[in-house]
Design goal:
It is a single chain. By secondary structure, the chain is an alpha+beta fold. The chain has 3 domains: about 5-70, OB fold (Dihydrolipoamide Acetyltransferase, E2P) (Beta Barrel); about 75-140, 5' to 3' exonuclease, C-terminal subdomain (DNA polymerase, domain 1); about 150-215. Helix content is about 40%, strand content about 20%. It contains 9 helices and 5 strands; from the N terminus they run βββαββαααααααα. It has a 5-stranded mixed β-barrel. Helix 7 (about 170-180) crosses helix 9 (about 205-215). The radius of gyration is 19 Å and the shape is globular.
Length: about 220
C-alpha cells in the first residue's frame, strides 16, 4: 500500500498531478481543491498522502491501477468516508471536493442540501444521501483548525466535568479526535470542559463532537 509520495511537481492537469520521483514520474489523481493549492508549485518539492485503487469495470474490462493524492492525512480520511455514500464513488468525490474539507464537513453537519447540490456531480438527491449518511460522521472534520495537527491519542489529562455526563472512553476518544484535526491539548480540554459543564449527557463521541461544533459556530 502506497500511503505517501514525495517528489517534484512536474505538471498539474485538470484532474491529475505528475510528481517526478527519480527515476520515475507518477501520475496522481487529485481533488479540485488540491489542484488549486498546488498548480503554482511546478518545479517545487511536494508531499502527497495517497490512496491506491484499481479503476475499471467488470466482465473483462481493462483494470488500471491509480493513485489518489491529498495534501493531508485528514483530507484522505474524509475522502474515504465521502466515497462510502451510495452513488458517489471515487471520480465523483474528486470532482465534488472543490472546497476545503472543513467547509464540506460543515455543510454536511448543517444539512445544507441546497449548497451541496451545486457542487460538480452532486445533485439534490445525492446531496440528501450524503447528509443522511454522513451528518453524524463528519463532526470532527468540521472542527479542523489547521492543515495538519498532532496525532496523539492518549487520555485527556485534566478534563473536568461530572462523570455522569459521559463515560471516560467517550471523553478520551473525543479528545483524540480533536487533536487529530489540529487542536492543541489545551484547546481540546477547554472544548470538552465547556460541553461537560451543562446537564446534557453524551453517549458517544459523535454526540460530544456535535455539541462542540454547535458551540464553536
Amino acid at each position: 500500500m502506497l500511503t505517501k509520495v514525495r517528489g517534484i511537481v512536474a505538471a498539474v492537469g485538470e484532474e491529475t498531478a505528475t510528481l517526478r520521483v527519480e527515476p520515475f514520474e507518477l501520475e496522481v489523481l487529485i481533488p479540485e481543491h488540491t489542484r488549486r493549492a498546488i498548480q503554482a508549485k511546478i518545479g517545487e518539492p511536494m508531499e502527497l498522502h495517497t490512496l491506491f485503487y484499481i479503476e475499471g469495470g467488470t466482465m473483462g474490462a481493462r483494470m488500471i491501477p491509480r493513485l489518489i493524492g491529498f495534501l493531508t492525512p485528514i483530507d484522505r480520511e474524509f475522502f474515504e468516508i465521502f466515497c462510502s455514500v451510495d452513488g458517489v464513488g471515487v471520480k465523483k468525490a474528486l470532482r465534488a471536493m472543490v472546497r476545503p474539507v472543513r467547509e464540506l464537513a460543515r455543510m454536511i453537519q448543517d444539512q445544507d442540501v441546497k449548497l451541496l447540490a451545486t457542487f460538480p456531480g452532486i445533485g439534490e438527491a445525492t446531496a440528501e444521501r450524503i447528509v443522511a449518511k454522513l451528518r453524524r460522521k463528519v463532526g470532527k472534520y468540521a472542527l479542523i483548525v489547521g492543515q495538519e495537527g498532532p496525532t496523539g491519542s492518549g487520555p485527556a489529562p485534566g478534563v473536568n466535568g461530572a462523570p455522569e455526563n459521559a463515560e471516560a472512553d467517550v471523553i478520551r476518544d473525543t479528545f483524540a479526535a480533536l487533536l487529530s484535526v489540529g487542536h492543541t491539548e489545551a484547546q481540546a480540554r477547554q472544548a470538552i470542559d465547556r460541553v461537560l459543564s451543562g446537564k446534557k449527557k453524551f453517549k458517544s463521541v459523535a454526540d460530544m463532537i456535535e455539541a462542540i461544533y454547535q458551540q464553536s459556530r
